[in-house]
């Protein structure tokens, strides 16, 4: 049977996902076959596996750090919030419907067999499983029938590493308070604590570390410094939304919808040094961008109406009317069309007018399209015409079907990944002048695509584009995972961590 370790946190966004990913990389480097696992994930950033199943993005990132192909058994339950009180529930990669929080918690224990089946599947194939918790194990209103923190640890008899975030203050109270609120049998599972996101001289912390160990009777196994690495994030607590950057040579404005999803699509553009990517949620922040991107959304109609009410729609229409470039992905693509119809009430029953910048009409249906795709850009017009013929790989996750005016130019030609039949290619997306849209998540990941977009904008602005160099996204991520492993080796007591797993 595989050895395991579980990473729990004193609250959300303390760095559990990154610590788990770093340990996956360390164990891989040490010669072990390692896999990540999270029984229940709540996130709007998701991914499609090779067999067309949907899972949380954090476990995909951790699987990449472990050097393995992501599979849905690493995240058997995914909750995708549709509003403040309900979520789409995805079990083993397939949606089973939208549930209110009350309804989901009523059925939560019914999902334990799926969790254990997925975990046992991994246990057969790997030497080590790194389990990630969610939120805090001391949420007393959620402890009953818990399946993601101490409840999960008990199901598989996992030792726990408890992580606290010092950057936001109060880390000693976080850790001591969490331990105090746990039951005795749960406290015994915590084999060590970790202080994360520390800035400064660790020696200043030493009196506090000693006091924390005395109060909790649990060893502190490391202080991890605040680090700046480019790792995929899965939820709206990400710090990238709050970066206050001055516009770069290429200024890209991304509309930050209330239900923004798969914002990891923008990471390859963010990684290019000449580019500033700003996430904006009000007309006052619009500025004078070189490109506006409408990303994915879990509630397309609601986010479209939000944009209409707060004045961003009018800004985009004026910007586009003056020749500005706009790119929509998935939900953003749907919004750029003429109308969105929702006859079955998938989101909000009825018909809503879109921005009208693309000759597209979208109809929501019950079936969710989940597939990996590969393809190339078709004959291109407008500012991005140099993308013509460039190939890409990505994936689709959406419940709408978009019909494009037959006289209009399509954006891409693609097929399901791995399907070698030439006739399986089909045209998708749409373009109209400097407005572009399609369903493909990850479309900017290929170096030639992100590099081509930046070069096209710089060329229009009269800059020399010879020095522009996009990143090979896969190689770049490998470098980030190796750096993360180095940081953890330097700051954690890895001997103690190996011992707690014995």
Overall description:
With 502 residues, the protein is of the alpha/beta class. It has 2 domains: 3-231 and 478-500, Rossmann fold (3-Layer(aba) Sandwich); 250-462, Class I glutamine amidotransferase (GATase) domain (Rossmann fold), CATH 3.40.50. It is built from 15 helices and 26 strands. It has a 6-stranded parallel sheet with strand order 2-9-1-10-11-12, with helices on both faces. Strands 15-13-16-18-26-25 form a 6-stranded mixed sheet. Strands 19, 20, 21, 22, 23 and 24 form a 6-stranded mixed sheet that branches. A hairpin with a 7-residue loop joins strand 19 and strand 20 (350-353). It is globular. It starts with a strand and ends with a helix. The mean pLDDT is 92.
Please tag this protein with its features:
ligase; single chain; ABC-type vitamin B12 transporter activity; Rossmann fold; 502 residues; 15 helices; 26 strands; 2 domains; globular; alpha/beta; Cobyric acid synthase
